[in-house]
Amino acid sequence: MDRTKFIIATAIILFAVFILGWLVSSLLARFSRVPVSEMDEVERLSQRLHDVESQRDRAVTELEMREAELTERLSHTSSELRSALDGLRDSRNEIEELRDYIERKLAKNRQSGA
Fold first, then answer.
1. Cα(4)–Cα(2) distance, rounded to whole angstroms?
2. 3-state helix/strand/coil string of 35-76
3. What is the CA radius of gyration of the chain?
């Protein structure tokens, strides 16, 4: 076989393989085509997915808002608690001072009365 015949034979084989591949590809495309009813189902499912994602986003936003509100309320309550504890501590100190004052006065009265 000379060079020209070899080139022609190779070209014919390559062309035949190309045609065979094209036929197989078109057959696969025809058999794997999705029916319209399934496309409608896919469209419906994608719409439901979109709706659910929107609801999730709204729920997350609402949750973040509630968390911020509760954090603010907790901070405010903690501040009030600190103020109340400071007032209680001051009152205890004042009561202790008054007890000491009363005890000194009573002791002074006992000494002067005895």
1. 6
2. CHHHHHHHHHHHHHHHHHHHHHHHHHHHHHHHHHHHHHHHHH
3. 46
Predicted TM-score (pTM) of the model is: 0.50
Q: CA–CA separation, 79 vs 83, rounded Å?
A: 6
CA distances from 97 to 29, 50, 51, 94 (A): 96, 70, 69, 5
CA trace torsion 40, 46, 50, 56 (10° rounding): 130
17-38: pLDDT as tens digits: 999 999 999 998 888 877 777 7
User: Domain residues of the chain, as ranges?
Assistant: 1-33
- Cα 32 to Cα 28: distance, rounded to the nearest angstrom: 6
pLDDT at 86: 96
